[in-house]
Amino acid sequence: MGSQPEDKAVFDTESGKEMVKELRASFVAGKTKSYEWKVSQLKAMLKMMEENEAQIIFALRDDLSKPELESSIYEIGMLKNSCRLALKEMKHWMKPEKAKTSLTTFPSTAEIVSEPLGVVLVISAWNYPFLLSLDPVVGAIAAGNAIVLKPSELAPATSSLLAKLIADYLDGSCIKVVEGAVPETTALLEQKWDKIFYTGNGRVARIVMAAAAKHLTPVVLELGGKSPVIVDSDIDLKVATRRIIAGKWGCNNGQACISPDYIITTKDYAVKLVDSFKCELEKFYGKNPLESKDLSRIVNSNHFDRLLKLLDEDKISSKIVHGGERDETNLKIAPTILLDVPKNSLIMKEEIFGPLLPIIMVDKLEGSFDVIKSLGGKPLAAYLFTNKTKLKAKFVAEVSAGGLVVNDTTVHLAEHNLPFGGVGDSGMGSYHGKFSFDAFSHKKAVLYRSFGGDSSLRYPPYTRGKLRL
Ligand code: NAD
């Protein structure tokens, strides 16, 4: 795991240089800019999914024991939606946008023209290894760029399948896949790109951004963070519980960037909430969730050990009120809830990215906003369950996060009319729907003037008399 398969040549800086040279030649020749080329590639991607769905599901099961339905809906289904939307709307997205003009440039007309950036690099993560690799690629194709995709080495089955399928279905002179880990990514990052789109953790994001800075390359950084869920007591408890479970354990067993990381609720409501979780979790995953086929495993032993370290910290283990079981052989951890977790514990200091869900108790729900701020950083998502209009307004006004959802979790990701991305520590830039097209386009300002209305004010001699005109 983590290295280039033996039968393939080593991918080094020189290989990166050659690859970018070839792609730039295709881009400069205008191959990727035509509407017809874009349509052909997006249709080919759809065909690729239609003809290989079983193989994709198999690879995801191999990498993460991802349940078939999760793979079908959240990886393949969502990517199909992105392709179909781009095919339907692309012509409209590509059209120059009329802009108003002012007295300063009178008489004139203006428009904003979207142009592709050039040759772009997409580096993706292991947790949704199919969707996170190809969703940005859809935007990059729609905008008319040549593309290199570097999937995550931590999902090796999906990575090698992507390399094969993309070579088989898409235009290899404009879209390429490089498999590999740090050495290969480093070789890629040494090249000059017109945009780098990175999904992953903040530590590597800093490496990506530093490499991009050398070439003044713009970046989109899709990162993570501790996404809180505030739970009020005036809610439909059953619906709220089920929606939190779906966003947490139903999303790759908590290994999702917008999964609920922790809950904040009032002291007098916490026990009721925990009871509701116990009841619904048993309905979904049975009495022995370690045997459930509806829960993904932890991706590898490093992440498994990392999660156990959070769970087994001295002051934390006594806080487990549900779950806690683990199966080291199969890298499984049961849905686990911890109640009344101290804010200075390890589990509250880093993004959990797994099936552990701590609950923090406050005297009054309004105190939740201070808890979120005190943990530092701006999360990728924040959720609130309430029926109170004033509390909703306060939540929207006071909580800074990539995205907010009231009375549900994670579903904003599927709303293509909303931008998806982080702020501060959770990232920069956004994508999905038209925002993906915009992420890979330059918005060129174009002003059209005629030869009339030529004011003498602009030209020397600069006399006082002209100022009084
Ligand atoms: P990962 O380990 O797969 O790494 C991501 C990519 O970075 C991989 O392609 C990897 O090869 C590359 N990489 C790793 N080390 C590198 C280095 N030293 N130099 C250059 N490249 C390197 O994934 P991860 O970082 O463990 O992903 C989990 C994180 O990603 C979490 O924080 C999660 O919240 C975040 N995430 C965010 C989103 C989003 O859309 N915002 C989606 C998924 C995951």
Automatic annotation (TrEMBL):
Any one Gene Ontology BP term: response to abscisic acid
Keywords, ordered alphabetically: NAD, Oxidoreductase
Gene3D superfamilies for the chain: Aldehyde Dehydrogenase, Chain A, domain 1 (3.40.605.10), Aldehyde Dehydrogenase, Chain A, domain 2 (3.40.309.10)
Cellular component GO terms, alphabetical: cytoplasm
Superkingdom, taxonomy of origin: Eukaryota
Residues annotated as catalytic: E222, C257
GO MF annotations in UniProt: aldehyde dehydrogenase (NAD+) activity
Similarity section: Belongs to the aldehyde dehydrogenase family.
Protein name: Aldehyde dehydrogenase
Source organism of the structure: Hibiscus trionum (Flower of an hour)
